[in-house]
């Protein structure tokens, strides 16, 4: 595995910014947990933010809980965001790129003249995000078929809540050091298609250890990036979820967050367990029938 995986994990698994067959992959086993707190049970699904139509429906165990859910909880509700203002406040800038990075970006943009027309006025993290999404598009992977989009559209009748905000995510990436943003951009420009397939395989492969290793490798020797993008947000989202379980009018909440937030020693399931919640991996053990 190469160091380039870092920005792909960011774009693919984190921000609310494998080869699947031609039929729905109902044998997929994404991160999926049953969480019980103070007698109230919720379900927690790890998502990927881009995908293909062939990924759906989701595994039957997941769809069954979705059909019983009374509300959906996402990382962010993108429709609540003022994207032009967020772009202006956190995404714009005219960075001076090193010659080698500028040349790689120029070569990449030769195939995306229209999309790259204004790329040089974006902060490096935003350039990296845009380039990563274009690379996913080359493989037929689009946000339209991300797990959140699928669930939001299929279960549109359900109320929805958010654990954080789009502004928080923009602000987080914008606050990264120039060095880290440049690293993200370089990773995006140097990414290989095989790495994207590896991510999809890991998401649906039912092997938390493999997904944890991908996350770990993605951040490499950048603990600052891991702490900011994963650990700090996990703490905040766990706090928001626990508050929501108390305040929401609905009892049956189905929660969807990026898969990388649900694996590893600093994951949301681990943090919830440390706060007294009973946490069950629904593909490793038998989840209850509380819903």
Automatic annotation (TrEMBL):
The name under which this protein is listed is Protein GumN
Secretion signal: which residues?
1-24
Q: Does the keyword Signal apply?
A: yes
> Which domain of life, per UniProt?
Bacteria
Q: Which Pfam families match?
A: TraB_PrgY_gumN (PF01963)
Give the record's keywords alphabetically: Signal
